[in-house]
Specification:
alpha/beta; twelve-stranded mixed beta sheet; about 15% helix; about 450 residues; 8 helices
Length: about 450
Amino acid sequence: MKKFAFCMLILSTFTFAAFAADKDELPANFLSTKHPMHTNHAGGLHGKGNIPTPHGFPAGVDTLINFTGHFDHAGVLPTAFDNNGISAVTPNHIWEYSMVGNPPEKGGITAINAPIIPVTIDMRDANGNPRFVVNQFHQTVRLISKPDPFLQDFLNGPVYSNADFSSSPVPTQLNDAEQRATFGNKARSDWHTLLVPQVVTPRTMVLNQGTYEFALNDDGTCCLFVLVSDPVFSNKLAPPAAADNTTVLGAAELAGDITTKDIATAFFPNVYLFENNDPNQCCVLGFHSIDGEAGDATNGNLTKFFVFNYASWISPGLFNGGFEDVTGHSHEMAEIFNDPFVAFDGIHNITPFWNSGSPQGPQGNQCQDFLEVGDVVEVLPNATFPIAIGNFTYHPQTIALLPWFAFEKNSSAIDHAYSYPDETVLPSLSPELTDIPTLDALGCS
């Protein structure tokens, strides 16, 4: 979707004694200069992971309800790579996709169970014992971070609750509104794909010292945020092989808390990921993927695909650019709706290469060939779109619509837009990217 130590010196009002922060403690403003990002935890041709590929698509798989379609546009597929990136491409013009739910022309309501697994982060010392630190008030604090304070606001947000959107004649959920926008007049007026949230058994992820960094709250409690090494986090989140009780998702699968027909969310309290063992190389706010498991007699021995995402609540003020509360989760859920299996077979949800970012955006270049609707916009200014529900203003991320990936010069989406809910974020199409030097230069490989 990295070793760093910080020592802070403050003067106590009463004792004027110097206080040295724990060597793994980060300053509260550490994230303010970091770029929030999302990472590709896919299997198949371009991604990473150990996901079995069935024969045919979607036949032979026990998984989430989805529909398929395609569009026609001249582009290229990468066929070979070298140390510099893509070394060979082949022309392609038919691009297939799969999306969550029933097709827009069918109409009707498709309800999808959406289990939410609240996850506590239990930070241990190098020997696996409960870890305690001394805060700025010289109090001993146990390093354990719970999602409970954020859970209700999370459930009340636009991913699971209804709000008014221009794409729907009735109040609806964010992801449904986005899908209705992307298909424009093709969608029947009664077509909706709705999530049914359910909080299931809470789980705990135990992390040993050396795999995480943290910052304490202003009142000295744990924790304002926690940074975790991506490989360690991922291995503790999803089982590397058969489901087991040692991972968050494996335990939930075995308990029946999540099934192959669901969209599961592992919900964390201000927990972000860093790469290459360097907390400065952060911050991944979420990712979505599939956990592929062997079938058994209960499902006719069909391969099982569990669709899930990791999402962290984002407290205000941690990041710049308006990234807060449900920004990361809305990004991942939108991408699940549009690319539930993360292009695992190297065919469905592969698109012509696209570019978003430099010179438009302040956060650098974004270039790839997946139907990842959130990645397009995350690097652009005004990526989030405020939505008020009750007395709370949420900040979901605007996404790119299917016609943008299809390079439609006259978008067939709502209002001929390329983005939604903020239709102004993507005013034009990506440049056509078909030559190897340009793809390599933009980091498209």
